[in-house]
Write the structure tokens for this entry.
Amino acid sequence: RRDEVRHARTMAALARRRGGAPRRPTLARRPPRSLEAVALENAVEGCVRETYAALAATVQATRARAGDLRAAMTRIAEDETRHAALSWQIASWAERRLGPTARARVATARAQAIAALRAELAAQRVPCELLVDAGEPTAVEAVRLLDALTEALAA
């Protein structure tokens, strides 16, 4: 949680320096959930989205032309990599405790999340200044990154 708050503050400051006006998110309290519900969310948000975010942030950390963005993305990439590793540890722990039907639902959710992320990445239109200054991957590069990541995780 602290990492995500720090990431939001870092990115908001970077956006403000460039004329942006970031808005504060609204967060809702959530009631306790079942192990399967936690495993499902972890599969989608952790194993898929955090893992891809770690890879994309690493690319930005190496390619960003703007020094402040490169430094921010280096730190964020490290944090996201830790978050992704934790997500995979949680997945392993949770799946040992779930029955076969629930495990199948988690695997299906993960596969659907990969497909949804691939579609989002393919449809994105990254402004030229973000490609250069922030080192953002193009839509084609982003899909290739996701495909390579998915292949590596399946091995």
